[in-house]
Amino acid sequence: MNPQERSCRFSELQELSPKTFPLLPEPLTGKTWTLEDFESYPALLVMFICNHCPFVKHLKKDIVKLSNFYIKKGLAVVAISSNSVATHPQDGPEFMAEEAKLYNYPFPYLYDEECQCYPCSPPLLF
Prior knowledge:
Order of helices and strands: EEEHEHEE
Strand content: 15-25%
Number of helices: 2
Largest sheet: 4 strands, mixed
Oligomer: single chain
Distance between the termini: 29 Å
Strand order of the largest sheet: 5-4-3-6
Shape: globular
Helix content: 10-25%
Radius of gyration: 14 Å
């Protein structure tokens, strides 16, 4: 089945590695990111979020505040949306870019089109 036609679900978390964190584009800037882009940081906060999630909608401003706080302390932060646009069109890259710009996300908001990382239901922070 085409990854864009399915809803992505995993039963357990996978270890963060280049395999589980593939090349991912950032819709707002067009830059492609890899896990290696964050190697110089002492720690990396990875958030699996999406535009349509009611939890994320409620916490957006707090996510930005939390991210800004830890970025100032030297932590790297990244958010990934792994939802299928077939099932959640509002989670597509053009809407992600709008969201990142509107809320002034201080972190890359990456699009996992092939659902290689993890789904965002519920939002997860590592």
